[in-house]
Structure formats: structure tokens, C-alpha cells
Amino acid sequence: MVNLLYIAAIIVAVAFAVLVIYLARTLKASQRTLNNVADTLEGLEKQMQGITTETTELLNKTNQLADDINEKSSKLNGVFDGAKGIGETVKEFNQSLNRISTSITQSASQNQDKASQAVKWGAAMMDLWKKKKYNK
């Protein structure tokens, strides 16, 4: 029986040794995997730093563009105000021309009879002058 105990102890010792060997291999494989994960995370961290730097530069450029656009927009407001003033001036000029045209039309209609008589007198004078010139 004692022999059986020794054999059982040897079997347990061999099984424990095999278990420890497989456990050591598993831990080494896990260590390699964790090292690969650590390397990947370092690379990812470097890429994230690059992305952060580029994003910061992009934001700075965007802010500069926004400031430039605001400045140019302010300058354009002055141009539009000037154009509005020009439009109002043209409108007033058109109104003045309309008033002058209306005044001329009214004067012409009031003096139409006088003008017509002046044309008749002018025609008569021309006829007399032509007859006088023809008779000489």
C-alpha cells in the first residue's frame, strides 16, 4: 500500500509539473500578447498625438479664416451702404427727371396754340421771302 501511495504521489507530482509547464507556456503566450497590445497602444497614442496636433492647427486656420471672413464682410457692408446711397440718388434723379418731363409736357400743351401760330407765321414769312426772291 505504501508503494501505491508513492506511485500516487509520483503521479500527482508529474501531473503538477505538467500543469506548471502548461501554465508557464500560457503565461508566456499571454505576456507576448500583452506586449503586442502595449506596442499597439503606444503606436495608437503617437497617432492620436499627431491627430491632436493636426486638429489644433486646423482649428487655428479655421479661426483665422473666420476672422478674415468677418473682416471682409465688414468691409463689404460699407460697399453695400454706398450702393444703397447710389440707388437712392438714382431714384431721386429719376423723380427729378419725371417732374421736369411733366413740367415740359404741361408747358408744351399750354403753349401749343402759340407755337402753332408761330409755325404758321414762320411758314407765311418763308413763302413771302421765296416769292420775293423768285420775282427778282
Architecture overview:
The chain is 98% helix and 0% strand. With 136 residues, it is mainly alpha-helical. It has one domain (2-108). The model has no long low-confidence stretch (mean pLDDT 86). It holds the Pfam family DUF948. InterPro entries: UPF0478. This is DUF948 domain-containing protein. It comes from Virgibacillus byunsanensis.
Structural domain count: 1
- By helix and strand content, what is the structural category? mainly alpha
Number of strands: 0
Chain-averaged pLDDT: 86
* Distance between the first and last residues' Cα: 180 Å
Coiled coil: 27-61
Pfam family, one: DUF948
Protein name: DUF948 domain-containing protein
Keywords: Coiled coil, Membrane, Transmembrane, Transmembrane helix
Which tags fit this structure?
single chain, 136 residues, mainly alpha, 2 helices, 0% strand
Short description:
With 136 residues, the protein is mainly alpha-helical. It has two helices and no strands. It has one domain.
Topology (elements, then pairings):
Blueprint: H1 2-110, H2 112-135
